[in-house]
């Protein structure tokens, strides 16, 4: 399919949103260049827990978008049945034993949406999904969501870039940070840090946590709630855990090569300090505590060892909802900025590419447009 509205586009950012959008545009016969300030997936996509879900409570439009996102991953999984980077083995979650415990309310909400959910006691868990230390589950019980899964975003981005290249797309990674070029009130391309310019009919900004700052350079406001995140990748460990765990003190996600990805908000808050030069210092004692918390919820309480640690901003808009679509005040300039980048990665690329290529707004993105921040 070829659309006639535009013939060329430049995408700034080679994380999942940027690459997914670039591939979708290339599939439509549009000439696409992706610019990145380093290797693909060097930002938030490279340190994401990448849990595929629409669990707990959120707005109905956001839930529908996430469910569409999961649907696209199921299609991808069917075409890559033996992939070790995309799995649907379910998700298990429980809350702390205090007044903040929302397991009952969360279960009732998920059931009201027909979101596949099972309410389990600690004694029930072993018969449903393996690898959990049931003694860690609080008396209020847990929720198992059989339809949830996980993806390794760097592996997925690599696969998409292979198709992108085969379709004639160009990836530029060696010219530093890029910025949109605005002339006559519209986006006309992008300029790299080295001064190179790429003319294009449309520009897509998909630079993760840098989006609000970069949008502001063109006078556009996007509410920013981005915190610092820390993701620990373990060394390989033979263990039966298959589901993604979201528990009061740690999230644990299986990963390719018998490894596990771990994160927790408290670990990032307590263990990461921003340096004056923009880098980060990591408290190794906090990392050790995170490993210990993960071991507590895993069957046999295994000894976990660090392989890599990823630190940086976790993209979260100021109101928690995705920001996707065109800037009304700057024709030809589009943005993708959201939490849940993994779950939304394929569907956001598909719907944003539709808007860029056709000039029409997609109804599923109606509540997520960037101008809502300018209206407040």
Automatic annotation (TrEMBL):
Keywords: Membrane, Oxidoreductase, Transmembrane, Transmembrane helix
Alphabetized Pfam families for the sequence: DAO (PF01266)
TM region(s), chain numbering: 6-26
GO cellular component terms, A-Z: cytoplasm
Residue ranges occupied by any FAD dependent oxidoreductase domain in the UniProt entry: 9-354
GO molecular function, one term: oxidoreductase activity
InterPro entries given in the database record: FAD-dep_OxRdtase (IPR006076), FAD/NAD-bd_sf (IPR036188)
Identification of the protein by name: FAD-dependent oxidoreductase
Species for this entry: Shinella kummerowiae
């Amino acid at each position: 399919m070829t659309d006639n509205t535009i013939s060329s586009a430049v995408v700034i950012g080679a994380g999942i949103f940027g690459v997914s959008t670039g591939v979708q545009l290339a599939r439509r016969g549009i000439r696409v260049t992706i610019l990145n300030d380093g290797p693909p997936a060097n930002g938030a996509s490279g340190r994401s827990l990448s849990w595929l879900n629409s669990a707990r409570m959120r707005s109905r439009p956001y839930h529908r978008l996430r469910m569409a996102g999961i649907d696209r991953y199921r299609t991808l999984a069917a075409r890559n049945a033996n992939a070790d980077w995309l799995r649907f083995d379910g998700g298990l979650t429980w809350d702390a034993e205090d007044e903040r415990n929302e397991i009952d309310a969360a279960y009732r909400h998920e059931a009201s949406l027909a979101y596949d959910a099972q309410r389990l006691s600690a004694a029930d868990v072993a018969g449903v999904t393996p690898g959990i230390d049931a003694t860690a589950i609080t008396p209020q019980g847990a929720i198992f969501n059989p339809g949830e899964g996980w993806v390794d975003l760097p592996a997925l981005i690599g696969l998409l870039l292979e198709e992108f290249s085969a379709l004639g797309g160009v990836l530029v990674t060696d010219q530093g940070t890029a910025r949109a070029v605005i002339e006559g009130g519209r986006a006309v391309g992008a300029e790299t840090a080295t001064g190179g310019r790429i003319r294009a009919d449309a520009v897509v900004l998909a630079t993760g946590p840098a989006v609000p700052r970069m949008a502001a350079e063109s006078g556009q406001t996007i509410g920013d709630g981005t915190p610092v995140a820390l993701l620990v990748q373990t060394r390989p460990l033979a263990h039966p855990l298959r589901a993604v765990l979201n528990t009061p003190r740690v999230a644990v996600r299986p990963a390719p090569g018998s490894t596990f990805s771990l994160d927790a908000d408290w670990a990032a808050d307590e263990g990461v300090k921003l340096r004056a030069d923009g880098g980060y210092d990591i408290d190794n004692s906090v990392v050790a505590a995170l490993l210990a918390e993960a071991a507590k919820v895993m069957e046999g309480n295994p000894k976990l060892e660090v392989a890599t640690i990823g630190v940086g901003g976790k993209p979260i808009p100021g109101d928690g909802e995705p920001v996707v679509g065109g800037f009304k005040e700057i024709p030809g300039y589009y943005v993708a900025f959201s939490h849940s980048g993994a779950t939304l990665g394929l569907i956001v690329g598909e719907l944003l590419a539709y808007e860029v290529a056709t000039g029409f707004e997609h109804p599923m993105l109606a509540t997520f447009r960037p101008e809502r921040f300018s209206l407040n």
